Amino acid sequence: MSIQKVAIITGGGRGIGAATAQLFAKEGYAVCINYKSNSDSANKLAQSIMAEGGKCITVQADVSCEDDVIRMFSTVDRELGAISILVNNAGILKKQSRLENMSAERINSILTNNVTSYFLCCREAVKRMSTRNGGFGGVIVNVSSGAARSGSPNEYIDYAASKGAIDTLTKGLSLEVASEGIRVNCVRPGLIHTDMHADGGEPERIERLKSIIPLQRGGEPSEVAEAIYWLASDKASFSTGNYLDLAGGL
Predict the structure, then answer these.
(1) What is the pTM of this model?
(2) Is 229 a catalytic residue?
(3) Annotated catalytic residue within 29, 35, 156, 159
(4) Which distant-in-sequence residues (6+ apart) come within 8 Å of 70 by Cβ?
């Protein structure tokens, strides 16, 4: 009898996170859907997964907060078992702005929510996965952004810089734990149809920019989820420290 693998998806209540949670559950994983504040969305998704026979829990946690991260991982240990996969997806975006108009409060909020959160979740995952610590190995997939390459000038260079940090985290951590049974990879989505564009103050941003995308359209959350799942699967067993760009050629 095989043991059911366990996946934690941070920011799993909407967009890319929700599509990823659905896919992992469909493929037989026990899933933890993490959310920060939108309990309705997370619980609705969990109910949908369980209605189709999947195993799923929701855990409220601000993953930029160390105590919340520790509590979330302890909850998963207790209710689902040993973690196999961590998908770091939670993040925030502020209104479009030039750097000269950004406050320290805004910058620090972006960095804490988008960078510190990934570090903390990776730390707790490695503690559990690493063969050095008696674990059975595992996979971490970080969700970065095409903004890490473009810099997002005149819109959100703070967000872009936070995602650049995630690229570096991916590379460094992948080398740190490669001999301990853990693979660490990264996806870099481009213009994807999610609510995040509304968070930035322009819900129709993809419509404005799609003409510069070689494939002439925005991407779907499910397309990013498929890439995340592949990187987490045994089909990508020789891939670590790599970046998969999902930007329609942009």
Answers:
(1) 0.95
(2) no
(3) 159
(4) 124
